[in-house]
Amino acid sequence: MLTTDTVTRDALGVLQPGFTGTTAPDWLLRRLDEGLGSVALFARNIESPEQLATLTARLTARSPQLIVAADEEGGDVTRLESRTGSSFPGNHALGAVDDPELTRAVARELGHRLRECGVNLNWAPSADVNSNPDNPVIGVRSFGADPELVARHTAAYVEGLQQSGVAACTKHFPGHGDTAVDSHHDLPRIDADLNTLYARELVPFRAALAAGTKAVMSAHILLPAVDRALPATLSPAALTGLLRAPESQGGLGYQGVIATDAVEMRAITATYGIERGTVLALAAGADAICVGGNLADEETVLRLRDALVRAVRSGELPEERLADAAARVRALGEWVGTRSGAVRDRGDRHPGIGLVAARRALRVTRLAPYRAPEGAVFTAAFTPVANIAVGDETPWGVAAELRRLLPGTETGTYRESDAAAHGLPALVANVLHSAADRRIVIVVRDVHRHRWMADALACLVAARPDSVVVEMGVPQAPPTGALHIATHGAARVCGRAAAEVIVGNGAGR
User: Residue 228 — φ and ψ, nearest 5°?
Assistant: First the structure.
């Protein structure tokens, strides 16, 4: 039998909690002494690279093999640059270029920046195949809709990131791309059969495993072909079976760390609650429990620790399963710990690679003769509600870059609530009045998913055929406007690349 102290230490060892503030709270330091194996960083913890490096240095001084995790996909999902927008395009832009060497170089440079700040586990890449273009949470976070394309870029991303000494956590197993529901809000269901699952969703995960990904993140999704009752995060059939089982038994044979997506998401808590969800996830085969995007306090850590200890004592969670999970996490901590020294420049640094990639990802369609504006323009940003993974604090669009290149440029932001409150004709009239005689640059994001946005866009282009349209989401709708630019993502560098084309300084493709 394991002693109570050992069980308690293992229970802390499998948690990946968040915290508030830009300095390490005392309670977190105490729990590190007691065996906490990981911490999770979010935008609220980060003010600058220097501040972050100071924070993580204090944490790892207390626990040298500590796993310091962050959700830094680049593109739309950024924590390092949440206040400014990312210096790296996201997966969809890299998939549009379809140059695995470029993807590897982008991931390597992103990894170097994470490592310099003391982050050693990145909850990336997203290996989801975006087979449902109406997906509200994946979209441009996916490399694309073709499983083989997603597979080759997932592998390249894992390799590049880990070459920098940062562990990759490939997500969201077994694939979140064919969902119409955001698991932050509810439990998505995928009704694909097993043959489709193996031929589509699992192809990129096989590639990630072959590339040596150090961790895999589970998805809170229900796949009846695998488990009719339990979402993948809580399903032994999905984790111990599909992911861990040897290939001879139909599994992927993975032996590394399985981390959960955040257990406070409603796909878990609405049915099971956070404590029972944590116990079920460990029992199903998960090794690390991500928590703290919203619940970021000592009380949450103690609740989950105690829930795991009680489950072991009651026999609901085998002691050996908890010990195995903690051992896997510690092994990952040893791996990142051996790479915790100063980052050496091995000649593979490329600070400008993000902008290079964003420029290559542009798809420019000229539908009418186009002359670059000679003076200020008016930017109309049609802004959908941001999903939780992206967050609403990160700026997006082309307005800031256009103001830099064309002084005097102004922008207006328009939302569905504006159309609902005042009517679509009033919204369009407002844009036309604000623009006056200036060229209009209309910025949209996933226009194919938003009827109000599509209708407003059509009316504006009909009224002003010389308008420029910039699509910064998944470009599913037909190009429109005199000049149409698809950026395949809304990172800051994507906005800069598009602005260069608008003013005539960039060619695009």
Answer: -75, -20
